[in-house]
């Protein structure tokens, strides 16, 4: 594809980063500050309950959910199918953002754009990796894909920078530069960075290098996930008791027989017209107010990702936090 054709193709930004880094927060920031751009979002989650897709602040007809796997492997064909469908709707979108699962390797996703049927209509503008400044060093040691996400990035967003001292931030930036010396870096709080720096990576590279396009990574052998990492999904109607949930989550993160990497969920709280959102990254858990329920049925949904997870124990523990168990049904699923 020539330079002119490539720049006329619809740009795509791949947002990646390990579990809990702040990818959805960044995507919502992009949507809020898009300055008239019509942005479509492809949302990928590892578990079989789509939590993040419900937290995206965009019309439902512009958000495409891919659950039960990662776009880099088990649902890659679904990703291609979504783009094939979007090819006939390109006039409605100025930019596409893919939010990959926190366990996704960016390499195979990038290679998907080498397919002729995608490359003629869409171009990968850039890869943005959100880095959790508070936990990334432990994540790199624990899970190989975290380092791979950093290595493939065109731009590293060093999120939660306010949680570290200046000396620790500088040391972390030095380590990130060793992992990826060519990526630009931005510090952020709540993933707030200039949107132009996110959505115009390819244009900037074109201006700087005098040519369009980007180098795709070559296949480096069969990609496979750390099979010890699984997810458990639980859902239940009714209202949740926040005090009970707080005590139970505190107990969970202190358990030594389960290594919880990530928790997230939507909660129905008694007397509240809005849903509550809870996020947990390792031993840090936050519960914050979210958007109103509207006409949607009030319900509680949670996904737990980690090692050594006990499906039944997590299901029972979550259901025990309901304000009343009478007549309520919950369902737990693992993968």
Report the major sheet. 7 strands, parallel
The tally of structural domains comes to 2
In whole angstroms, how far apart are the ends? 40 Å
Question: In the CATH hierarchy, what is the architecture of the largest domain at level 2?
Answer: 3-Layer(aba) Sandwich
CATH superfamily of the largest domain: P-loop containing nucleotide triphosphate hydrolases
Order of strands across the widest beta sheet? 3-2-4-1-5-6-7
Rg calculated over all Cα atoms: 20 Å
Strand content: 25-35%
Could you list the spans in which at least 5 consecutive residues all have pLDDT below 50?
Answer: 206-223, 326-335
What is the helix/strand order? HEHEHEHEHHEHHEHEHHEHEEEEHE
**Mean pLDDT score:** 80
Task: Classify the oligomer.
Answer: single chain
SSE blueprint:
Elements: H1 3-8, E1 10-16, H2 23-32, E2 39-44, H3 52-55, E3 63-66, H4 76-86, E4 95-99, H5 106-112, H6 116-119, E5 122-132, H7 136-142, H8 144-151, E6 155-159, H9 166-179, E7 184-187, H10 195-199, H11 201-209, E8 229-237, H12 242-254, E9 259-267, E10 274-281, E11 284-292, E12 299-307, H13 311-319, E13 330-334
Helix pairs in contact: 7-8
Notes on the protein architecture:
It is a single chain. The chain is of the alpha/beta class. It folds into two domains: 3-209, P-loop containing nucleotide triphosphate hydrolases (Rossmann fold, 3-Layer(aba) Sandwich), CATH 3.40.50; 229-334, 2-Layer Sandwich (Hypothetical Protein Yjia, Chain: A,domain 2), CATH 3.30.1220. The chain has 13 helices and 13 strands. It has helices spanning 3-8, 23-32, 52-55, 76-86, 106-112, 116-119, 136-142, 144-151, 166-179, 195-199, 201-209, 242-254, 311-319, and strands at residues 10-16, 39-44, 63-66, 95-99, 122-132, 155-159, 184-187, 229-237, 259-267, 274-281, 284-292, 299-307, 330-334. It has a seven-stranded parallel sheet with strand order 3-2-4-1-5-6-7, sandwiched between helices. It has a six-stranded antiparallel sheet with strand order 11-10-9-12-8-13, with helices on one face. Helix 7 packs across helix 8. The chain is globular, with a radius of gyration of 20 Å.
């Amino acid at each position: 594809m020539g330079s002119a054709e490539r720049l006329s193709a619809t740009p795509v930004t791949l947002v990646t980063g390990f579990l809990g880094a702040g990818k959805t927060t960044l995507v919502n920031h992009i949507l809020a500050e898009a300055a008239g751009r019509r942005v479509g979002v492809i949302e990928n989650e590892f578990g079989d309950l789509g939590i993040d897709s419900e937290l995206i602040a965009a019309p439902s007809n512009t958000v495409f959910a891919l659950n039960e796997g990662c776009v880099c492997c088990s649902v890659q064909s679904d990703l291609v199918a979504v783009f094939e469908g979007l090819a006939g709707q390109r006039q409605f979108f100025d930019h596409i953002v893919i939010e990959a699962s926190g366990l996704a390797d960016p390499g195979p996703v990038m290679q998907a754009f080498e397919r002729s049927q995608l490359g003629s209509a869409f171009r990968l503008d850039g890869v943005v990796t959100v880095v959790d400044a508070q936990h990334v060093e432990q994540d790199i040691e624990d899970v190989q894909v975290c380092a791979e996400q950093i290595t493939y990035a065109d731009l590293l967003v060093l999120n939660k920078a306010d949680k570290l001292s200046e000396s620790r931030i500088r040391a972390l930036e030095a380590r990130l530069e060793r992992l990826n010396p060519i990526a630009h870096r931005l510090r952020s709080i709540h993933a707030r960075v200039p949107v132009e720096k996110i959505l115009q990576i390819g244009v900037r590279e074109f201006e700087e290098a005098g040519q369009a396009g980007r180098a795709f990574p070559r296949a480096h052998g069969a990609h496979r996930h750390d099979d010890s990492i699984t997810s458990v999904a639980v859902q239940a109607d009714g209202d949740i008791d926040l005090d009970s949930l707080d005590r139970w989550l505190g107990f969970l993160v202190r358990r030594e027989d389960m290594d919880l990497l990530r928790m997230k969920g939507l909660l129905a709280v008694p007397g509240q017209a809005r849903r509550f959102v809870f996020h947990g990254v390792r031993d840090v858990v936050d519960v914050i107010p979210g958007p109103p329920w509207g006409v949607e049925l009030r319900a509680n949904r949670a996904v737990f990702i980690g090692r050594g997870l006990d499906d039944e124990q997590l299901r029972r523990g979550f259901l025990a936090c309901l304000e009343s168990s009478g007549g309520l049904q919950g369902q737990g699923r693992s993968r």
